[in-house]
Amino acid sequence: MLSDEDLQAVADGLPAESSALVVAWENTWAARLATAIRGSQGELRLLERIPSDTVVAAVAALDTE
Question: How many domains does one find in the chain?
């Protein structure tokens, strides 16, 4: 999944005396969803990721209500 070159690129971008965690994961539920969509002759028309700061702000707004 990640090559030594990938990890080196991350390391090269870090300030001195710092560290990073690199994680790779697969959303296995997405494969089941894609299979169900194809099985019903459906078509995925848009895939959009929501930026994490937007999610954090939305959750924070729920806490204030």
Answer: 1
